[in-house]
Amino acid sequence: xxxxxxxxxxxxxxxxxxxxxxxxxxxxxxxxxxxxxxxxxxxxxxxxxxxxxxxxxxxxxxxxxxxxxxxxxxxxxxxxxxxxxxxxxxxxxxxxxxxxxxxxxxxxxxxxxxxxxxxxxx
Length: 122
Hints:
Elements: H1 7-10, H2 18-29, H3 38-47, E1 49-51, E2 56-60, H4 65-69, E3 77-82, H5 84-87, E4 95-100, H6 101-120
Antiparallel strand pairs: 1-2, 2-3, 3-4
């Protein structure tokens, strides 16, 4: 049976919302039909960053933000990013979304409950 990982988010229409699409896509990269990338989540929470084979990632602020992502001000949260090589539109450059840690925890709580409920109740 095919299960869309975007389905739990479709009611909020985040898949088409530029504000949330980058965040949702980064989180979906950590999930698959058969398993959850536990190692990826551990890296994100323990080391402050996780990324993929091509060019996507979730990262705490660090001293390399200016060089790697052209972000010069320190922030208390996470940067979700998808590079043009990953999303396919080279003219657009890197998609970025910063979410502060308080808001991020609320986003995780709300949507993980929906995701796991939909995923494991079938």
